[in-house]
Recover the amino acids of this structure.
């Protein structure tokens, strides 16, 4: 079935143009003047922007179950005293429920692809398959320098690779997810890197989020985190490092020379008072920096439109320079840079790209008067402006109605799962 989106104002990081878009199967096949009879299904995009779906490059999707249960805490206290004790009680049903809820929240706020690191990832994959989104998923490995734990974590990662890589018509790919340099042994990191490179898989890891982490790694290895990861041969263009807040000049060079992809998580970094990543500086060095929300317990939503705005504002105030991180820069982070980071053929509206598209209703008071599309997207829009979402050429939401799953049912399942989980703590 082909879909014709007509009367569109097409906006991507390359610019704005009017026209129609023809989708066949999973791809954009034509853009411009297109006869109505070429489309089996017609979507009238008058008064709508059509943008590339937003790409969230750092999430822990099932943590929607933990939304709001441990606010106003520093990262390590938050993890050690609240989150990790709760995560001991997780199971595949809870992770499935939390992932379904997260998928709906992402569809409704214009995200079409994401990069998830968590647990029971085959259950998370089942939720993604059902909701129609695109994702790179990884089992979060934490071995705390324990040999038995290391073996178990690697075994689980390989199980998820075998079971889920390429699932859902190729919308799901699997990466390796060593949690961080402070929770993973050097042996686990080296084994992970070897396995990922041999199987052409990406690696997703938290690096240099807090000053405490820097101190821990310096004490343990006599180097800063990115220096240490470089020293053990872990870094490469397949590595996606989330946070990257506390960096030395030398480490920015290391990131650049190894073509490491950075996922910037401004809201999480601010909420946990971790710090401010030198994003403008990394972009000036042509490092690929994309955007992520982190989990819904350290944000606490998954709205990438909001994340874009806050990313732009944070750099401006950090450098006391309003020209830093323009609307266009941050729109690129959330679209084309995200696509590069996850290795997906999306992020731009061009013939041959995946049909991962979002319609934004500009006939709303918060986008009136309608002047500059990219400025409106970054500084004014929020999830409520999103009306229709298409991923892989399939309509997941049309005119604010989610097509793939019953939203009310999912909210109930997730609410109950969260109640049950919290009652076990
Ligand atoms: C996959 C693992 O990562 C943890 N996790 C969630 N948010 C963060 C963060 N900001 N920094 C480090 N770890 C985090 C999850 O709680 C889980 O234990
Ligand atoms: Zn995280």
């Amino acid at each position: 079935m082909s879909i014709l989106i007509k009367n569109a104002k097409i906006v991507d990081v390359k610019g704005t143009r009017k026209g129609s878009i023809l989708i066949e199967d999973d791809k954009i096949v034509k853009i411009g003047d297109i006869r109505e009879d070429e489309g089996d299904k017609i979507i009238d995009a008058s008064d709508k922007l059509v943008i590339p779906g937003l790409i969230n490059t750092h999430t822990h999707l099932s943590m929607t179950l933990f939304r709001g249960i441990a606010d106003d805490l520093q990262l390590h206290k938050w993890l050690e005293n609240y989150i990790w004790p709760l995560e001991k009680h997780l199971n595949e049903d809870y992770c499935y429920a939390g992932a379904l809820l997260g998928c709906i929240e992402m569809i409704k706020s214009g995200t079409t692809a994401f990069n998830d690191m968590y647990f029971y990832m085959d259950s998370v994959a089942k939720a993604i398959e059902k909701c129609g989104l695109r994702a790179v998923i990884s089992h979060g490995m934490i071995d705390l320098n324990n040999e038995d734990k290391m073996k178990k974590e690697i075994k689980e990662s390989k199980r998820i690779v075998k079971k889920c890589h390429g699932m859902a018509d190729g919308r799901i790919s699997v990466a390796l997810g060593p949690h961080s340099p402070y929770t993973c042994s050097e042996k686990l990191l080296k084994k992970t890197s070897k396995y990922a490179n041999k199987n052409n898989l990406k690696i997703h890891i938290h690096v240099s989020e807090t000053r405490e982490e820097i101190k821990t790694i310096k004490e343990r290895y006599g180097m800063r985190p990115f220096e240490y990861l470089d020293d053990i041969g872990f870094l490469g263009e397949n590595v996606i490092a989330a946070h990257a807040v506390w960096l030395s000049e030398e480490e920015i060079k290391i990131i650049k020379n190894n073509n490491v992809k950075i996922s910037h998580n401004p809201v999480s970094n601010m909420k946990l008072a971790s710090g401010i990543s030198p994003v403008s500086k990394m972009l000036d060095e042509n490092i690929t920096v994309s955007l992520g929300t982190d989990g819904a317990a350290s944000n606490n939503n998954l709205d990438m439109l909001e994340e874009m705005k806050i990313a732009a504002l944070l750099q401006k105030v950090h450098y006391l320079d309003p020209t830093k991180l323009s609307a266009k820069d941050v729109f690129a982070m959330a679209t084309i840079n995200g696509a590069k980071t996850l290795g997906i053929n999306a992020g731009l509206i061009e013939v041959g790209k995946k049909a991962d598209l979002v319609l934004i209703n500009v006939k709303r008071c918060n986008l009136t008067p309608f002047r500059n599309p990219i400025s409106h997207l970054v500084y004014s829009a929020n999830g409520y402006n999103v009306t229709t979402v298409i991923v892989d050429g399939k309509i997941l939401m049309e005119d604010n109605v989610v097509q793939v799953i019953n939203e009310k049912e999912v909210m109930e399942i997730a609410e109950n799962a969260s109640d049950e989980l919290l009652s076990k703590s």
Observations:
- The pocket of zinc ion (ligand 2) is lined by residues 58, 60, 206, 242, 294-295 (CB under 6 Å).
